[in-house]
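seq as requested:
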Amino acid sequence: MSEVPGRRPARVVVVDDQTVVREGIVMLLGLLPGVDVVGAAGDGEEAVRVVAELAPDVVLMDLRMPRCDGVEATRRIRSEHPGTQVVVLTTYADDESLFPALHAGARGYLTKDAGGDEIVRAVHSVLSGDAGLAPSIQRRLLEWLSESESEPRPTGPPEPPDGLTIRETEVLVLIAEGLTNHQIASRLRVSTATVKTHINNLFAKTGLKDRAQAVRYAYGKGLVRPPGR
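struct tokens:
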């Protein structure tokens, strides 16, 4: 892949909780023109901090990480540092991973079988205002658009499942959209402690263990629909 004359390399931060994977991506990108890896992070909390310090053009973001996962980190980065774009680079291409990441503001989505040239193209695509999507992800979005056009539109809000209250269902939907407890509290105009109580109650009623399971549950129950864009 040749570098475009007059275009400076994109400043990139790599985020992955697996050290060998993270270092491998950094090493791979270091061999390619068009990108300059300026930093790396091992989880979402560190990613947000590194972005605040280095102001990179693009973050290559893993999704399933400890402390702060890639969806929440993406939402925080796009909210707090809108000049930085996010391209997801993950093992997972299922709907429960894809759509929350796009909801959170990711402009690109690649799986880890992507080659170096494909990663660089995605980086420059999102910097140009385009989407940096793997072909398989593009096909899934087209399939979803086709499916959604043929499905009848819901006539009202979904019925709360498994004995959840309306408020608990609202909290669940906001979790599925990638909001933090603080953001949910602000949206619903309640305290963070109240949000935590609702989460504990809905987890107890549904048998859910964490927010990742809550996202899958919300999509599975039809409480959240994937984005059309």
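The mean pLDDT is 85.
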